[in-house]
Amino acid sequence: MMLNSKSVGDKIAAARKKNNLSQADLAQQVSISSQAVGKWERGESMPDISTLNRIAEILGVDLNYFSETFKSNVSESQFETNKKESPETPATKPETTLGLSWNMSSGNWVDADFSGLSNLKDKFSTSNMKNCKLIGSDLSNLTLKSNNILGCDFSNSDLRNSKIQTSNLDNNQFIECLLIDTEFSSSEIKNCDFSKANFSGVELRTSELKKCIIENAVWNLSAFKLSHISDVVFNGTIDECSFENCSFTKVTFKNATITNTFFKGKKLKGIQFIDCQADRITYEFLKNGKADLTGLTLLA
Question: Domains (ranges, CATH) in the chain?
Answer without folding.
Answer: 5-84 (1.10.260.40), 108-298 (2.160.20)
